Structure formats: structure tokens, C-alpha cells
Fold this sequence. Notes:
Layout (H helix, E strand, L loop, with lengths): L7 E6 L4 H12 L4 E8 L7 E4 L2 E7 L10 E4 L3 H13 L3 E4 L15 H4 L9 E3 L3 H17 L1 E10 L6 H15 L31 H14 L5 E8 L6 E9 L5 H9 L4 E3 L11 H4 L5 E8 L6 E8 L3 H16 L1
Parallel strand pairs: 1-2, 1-5, 2-4, 5-6, 6-7, 8-9, 11-12
Antiparallel strand pairs: 3-4, 8-10, 10-13, 12-13
Helix pairs in contact: 1-9, 4-6, 4-9
The structure holds adenosine-2'-5'-diphosphate.
Amino acid sequence: MLKKKEKYIVAVVGATGAVGNEMVSILEERNFPVGQLRLFASERSKGSTINFHGKPVSVEVLKDDVFEGIDIALFSAGGQRSLDFAPAAAKAGSVVIDNSSAWRMDPSVPLVVPEVNSHDLMWHKGIIANPNCSTIQMVLPLKPIHDAAKIKRIVVTTFQSVSGTGMKAMNELHEQCTAFLNFREITPKVYPHQIAFNCLPHIDSFLDNGYTKEEMKMVNETRKIMGDQSIKVTATTVRVPVFKCHSESVNIETEKKLTANEVRAILSSKAGIVVYDAPQKNIYPLPIYVAGKDETYVGRIREDESVENGINMWIVADNLRKGAALNAVQIAEKLIE
Ligand code: A2P
């Protein structure tokens, strides 16, 4: 458990990556009480620095024995690093907030979106999991609807940006767009196909049931965070040529009838959610405008006329912020509250 202090020694593991970088900026933006910031990455980043509150902080090489004295360790260096190093960090007394999928479904590890289930932070044993980016932005608006009308089934299709894959994928989209517009040949490296001017119905690896791991993360993590195993969830996850922000088309069926206006009213009163929904004025959430924002934007709220109690909506959030780094820092804020 974290001891109350005025300032904390905070580590960011994977600090040179897309999410790690965002973690450092968000700790600074939100004035998290950092006494000392320690940054870790691979041997490749040895000698590099990242600015924090105007001062350069050196990036250190991640090793088993670096965690002594660290209060909070934010991990975003890939699942293998989390499996290899999070237990050592927890053993050394750090509270790990892990952005990878490595620990999410472990029954001894809470999986937390602070606005939804901060009560689960009470039972952590040194490792807390940050949910999958697409799941965070979906459960945030769905939980208050579930509380009001009990969700029976969720059908979701995602349109996920390349930053979810990391820095290399952002560079690849940039390079492929330039190559395409200059009639140069494109050789995909990060994804199995060209991502520029394309959509890939394939995120993470395929499982025997025909779904991808990303799709099953949405199914299993949603139930764990919402604390209700009875909710039926089916997902199709698609990578699109967008740099930042995931968008989602979400269809829900509820036990109790809710009108579109009632859904708008429920969501408008909730922290972290912006209802942005006036389609007659072309107002609906768009990735280019939601990028850099902390809130999850919801629009196109309408009744599904094909079933008795159904609602459709369009949800957009910045996957590097609420979908990853911001949620992790908000967990840290709850821990020290
Ligand atoms: P590095 O930049 O030194 O490779 P992204 O998800 O944007 O690709 O970022 C991945 C992050 O995880 C980077 O900070 C990367 O560091 C870090 N990382 C990858 N492999 C290791 C490793 N073996 N040990 C420590 N950090 C690693």
C-alpha cells in the first residue's frame, strides 16, 4: 500500500514510447506531486533525456534492481516487460500501474477506470492494471447507462488510430502517406498490410474463435470493470489511418427502456464525458478535434428502432490520454487522495 507523502518518487517505464511520453506530459500538466521522476527504457535509449517541468531527466536502462525507493511505477513498455519487471517493482514496494494487457485478467489485479470502479483500488496487491484503450472509452459512458437501465448486450465496432500501436506505427502511417502521394512503392512493416488510405479489420493476433485478442479484451475487460459477468459483448476492432483518437460505433440493448434524451441527460451529468450531439448542425465527435482532450466525447445518440430497448451512439476519445496515460495518472491520483 502507498504511504501518504507530500511528494512521491514516480517512475515511467517505457518513457520514450508514445504512451510513456504522454505519461510524462500528463504528470507535469496535472501537477502530480512528483518529488523525483525516474525514466526507464531499453538500452537503445541510454543517454537520451526527456524534459519534465523544464528540466532534462535522463532515461535509464530498465533492470530488475532499479525499483528500490520508487513509490509509483507507471509501466508502458509492452506486455513482456510488464510480466518480467512488474513483480520485482511490486516486491520492492512500488505500486505498479500497468498499461499493458499482461495483468488485466489476473483475478488478483484490479482493472480500473477511476470514474467507473475506483472502489476496486482498495484490494490491489502492488499491481493495478490500466484497461485496454478501446474498453476505457466505452465503459465510461456505458456504466451510468447500465446503472440506470441495465445493459443486456453491447455490439461495438471500433475505428482505432495507429498511435495505439506505438511510435513506429505513427511513423509508418506518415511515411506511407508521403510515399502514396508521391507514387512510390509501399512496403508495410508494422502492420501486415498498407495502413495509409486503408482499413484493417485486424488488431492484435487472431484467436481460434475467429476473433482478435483486441476484440476479446473488449469483451472480458468490460465485464470485469463493470462488475457484471452477465453483460453480453461482441466486438469488431478495425485499425484506421488516423494518428490519434479511437472512435467507436456502440449499440446497446437495455432491460429498461431509455429514450435518446434520457441517455443524453444521464451522460451530461457525468465527469469525464462530453455529450457532443447536434447532428443537424454537423456536430458530432471527430478524432481530429478530440485529440489532446481529456474527456470522452459521445454523439449520434439515437434509439435503435430494430429492437425494443436499444440505443446507438458514437464515442471518441484520445487513446493516448484517456485510453492510456491519463487514465493511469488518474489511478495514481486516486491512490494518493
Ligand atoms: P526504447 O525507445 O528504448 O525502445 P512504443 O509503444 O511507442 O513503441 O514504446 C515502447 C516503449 O517501451 C519505449 O519506451 C521502449 O524503449 C520501451 N521498451 C521496449 N523494449 C524495452 C526493453 N526491452 N526494456 C525496456 N524498455 C523497453
